[in-house]
Design goal:
The protein is mainly alpha-helical. It contains ten helices and seven strands. The longest helix is centred in the middle third of the chain and has 21 residues, at 131-151.
Length: 282
């Protein structure tokens, strides 16, 4: 936890553990090397404390690319304001502290049996990638590299990410006790990699959060964009701060006003000029 608070020297030392699965120790004249074959799950906070949807991910991560590239998958975990979800979470926490009895729900498999199954998969199953799956993986990797090069992604897509996709594919095959990694395993691994690392590294955030907007919020966004078009005629220019203030004065929510300006900038309908001004394209 608090991976972002790690000392600079420790960040350098963790490279060996994550890349070579070893740790070198030199204490009291004794030099030795220990194995570190284990998974690393790390959690870190954005540079400014909270995640800003209107800023690219790279500007909010205080990490070197050499460390970021060593993680197989990276997920953005956001604190979304949802009244119903917040209420349920609050009632759960209050119940825990008030001594209420919480029912433990059993899953399809008891925990003990699940541990035995995972241990059996690790020890007895060693799948290999089939030629068809290898062809799919090769084509997707080349296309991902090309796309990330054009977008100048924050997280570089290298052979490490290819190895990560292979590891995920093999893990999926192990879960099914398969001898071969087929196309379905590779496609699922690519899907997981896409919704995690590629989404985190995506610089084009013009559609960030739009898929999660309700119909009412979409209507408010369109209303804000129409108000901007009325305030800034084609070819006209206005201060970004002044434009935001005028939108708020007209009754538009402050966050929605920011989002509308940002979306129009990403679509190039508004272009940023000198002295903090925005110009609408002809």
């Amino acid at each position: 936890d608090e991976f972002d608070k790690m000392d600079v020297n420790d960040r350098v030392a963790i490279h060996e553990a994550m890349e070579q699965q070893t740790i070198s120790i030199a204490k009291a004249g004794i030099t030795t090397m220990l194995n570190t074959r284990c998974s690393v799950v790390a959690a870190a906070n954005p540079r400014f404390g909270t995640y800003d949807d209107l800023t690219s991910t790279g500007e909010q991560m205080d990490f070197e690319t050499t460390i970021l590239s060593r993680f197989d998958m990276m997920f953005l975990v956001k604190d979304v304001r949802d009244p119903e979800r917040d209420y349920n979470l609050c009632m759960h926490m209050i119940g825990l502290h008030s001594g209420e009895v919480v029912d433990n729900r059993e899953g399809p498999l008891p925990v003990l049996e699940l541990r035995k199954y995972i241990s059996y998969c690790r020890d007895r199953c060693d799948p290999r990638i089939s030629p068809e799956a290898a062809e799919v993986l090769k084509n997707h990797y080349v296309s991902i590299r090309q796309a990330m090069k054009q977008e100048k992604a924050t997280v570089p897509i290298t052979v490490r990410q290819l190895e990560a996709i292979v590891r995920i594919s093999e893990s999926l095959a192990k879960m099914e006790l398969r001898d071969d990694v087929d196309v379905s395993h590779v496609e699922e691994a690519l899907r997981l990699f896409t919704v995690s690392t590629l989404d985190s590294a995506n610089k084009d955030r013009s559609n960030v959060g739009l898929d999660n907007l309700t119909e009412e919020q979409r209507a408010d966004l369109e209303k804000a964009q129409e108000q901007i078009r009325r305030l800034v005629p084609r070819g006209g220019r206005k201060s970004k701060f002044q434009l935001h203030a005028l939108l708020v004065q007209s009754g538009i929510d402050e966050a929605m006003a920011k989002r509308a300006i940002f979306v129009m900038m990403m679509s190039r309908e508004l272009e940023e000029r000198a002295a903090g001004t925005l110009q609408r394209r002809d």
